[in-house]
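Target protein
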Amino acid sequence: MSDTVHVVCTGCGAANRVPHARLADNPSCGRCHEPLFDGHPANLNEQAFEGQLARSDLPVLVDFWADWCAPCRVMAPACEAAAGELEPEMRVIKVDTERAQTAAGRLGIRSIPTLMLFRNGQEIARHAGAIGKDQIVSWARAHA
């Protein structure tokens, strides 16, 4: 494992090199100076989502959801709480399938909510259906 990891800022999209040992020290983006982790899942558009996958060295946990989906709304607080436990060991993001239809189609999202875990831009695990915070955390850690 390298001494540093690339962490992509969810605000401006800049890739930041952060010493692995300093991930938990609340690092900030070198470009926009915003915190790289805030303990909440980032709601990203399709372009920002693709940038995370392409440039992040951290595992990226993605909650694919839609506003009209009742199970998605039920799982939202669990995803929020899970981000607080999983960051900074992995990036947690949410992608609205209604606004990111190209990515959802390319990734074969057939039902929502769907959690997907990526490493180096490649899917390494997928889970369809709403689950609680503890299940999200244990599932993500087991597959990362």
User: Anything to note?
Assistant: The chain has a mean pLDDT of 96. The first helix runs from residue 46 to 55. Residues 102 and 108 are 10 Å apart (CA to CA).
